Amino acid sequence: MGATSTNDLLAIPPLHWSRAYFTGNSKCDVVDNNLAEAFNGWIVDARCHPIISMLEEIRKMVMQRLHVKRSWVNKWKTNIAPRAQQKLEKNMELSVQCRLVWNGDGGFEVTHGENQHTVNLNTMQCTCREWELTGIPCCHAICAMYHDSKEPQTFISEWYTKERYLESYKHVLQPVRGKKFWPKREDDPIGPPKLKVMPGRPKKKRRKDKDEPVKQKYGKLSSAGFKITCSNCKQVGHRKNKCTNPGQKETSWYWHLYRPENWRTNIKCECYQLCPLFLSNDMKTAIPEFYLFYPGLPSEQVVTRAAKRKIGASISQYNHASKGPGLKWRGKQAVTTRQLQQQQSDQRRQSKRRTSQNPLDTQSSQTDANANN
């Protein structure tokens, strides 16, 4: 409990929250609000309705509950409430472990384990205060009752009897007609308030206090205390996205394809054995030769529908700068059909651009077309 919560609690008189200061008038030792929480959980479905519908639903539930509680009294085996009877029987079993010394009057000195209390049957009190607060005899008092050959049931408070229980549920709710027959105010009708839409997404979770612990989400753990290994350079202490070592990424053909210095040059690439460039006297831009003919690395191949089959799939011969997010086919990474269409469109535009830049290729293609005709 934080310091703020402690100060707020101390501002309330201890008579209202500490069992040590409770009086014995109410015959109840409850220090929490479970009764209100149980009622809120009972009407949780009705609370989702509008105000009038919610009140009508709660009224029907309470009207039925009063009848159920009155009918439940007929099933009691004794004149005492069942839960009070269970607690009394539990104290009767514990009374066997007690040892007492009688003073010859109305006082008893009862020893229970390491504790020792005094019991007075004339005033119906015990120094443990359980009998005074709850109205049910404690194990120390029951031990004294057995010594005087008295029945413990006769010392239970009257608030646990059948007559008191029926008296608390004697009030009933009368049935009500539907909304159609309700009286209406014609002079000044009350309409619903205007709906004001607040900015942002509405919150559904409860607002927690500052000192309240945050619950960890399922499946997500903190990386504190674990050794992080880079998948690129295999070193410990960082991840791949923050890796500064070249590793194997820069030596691949895929990396040379997108290096800017390999696209604008008049000489062959320095990595000629790995990345030969297709050069032309009439072309200002050098195009990697494997970009035109190489089908792609195994990890860069994509899945597309076969051209001459109605069903099935095949590995296309196109390289993709952006692969699908986790899409795989037969253990190989793949992309979506939309990405494949975009890649084909980019290749067509690049082909037209190269044709417009190289008039020799255009003239030769027209000559070949005339020869075929």
Automatic annotation (TrEMBL):
InterPro entries recorded: Znf_CCHC, Znf_PMZ, Znf_SWIM
Annotated TM spans: none
Composition-biased stretches (Low complexity): 336-345
Xref: Pfam families: SWIM
Top-rank taxon: Eukaryota
Compositionally biased region (Polar residues): 358-373
Keyword flag RNA-binding: no
Keyword RNA-binding: no
Residue numbers spanned by region Disordered: 182-216, 317-373
Keywords: Metal-binding, Zinc, Zinc-finger
SWIM-type domain residues: 117-149
Name the record gives this protein: SWIM-type domain-containing protein
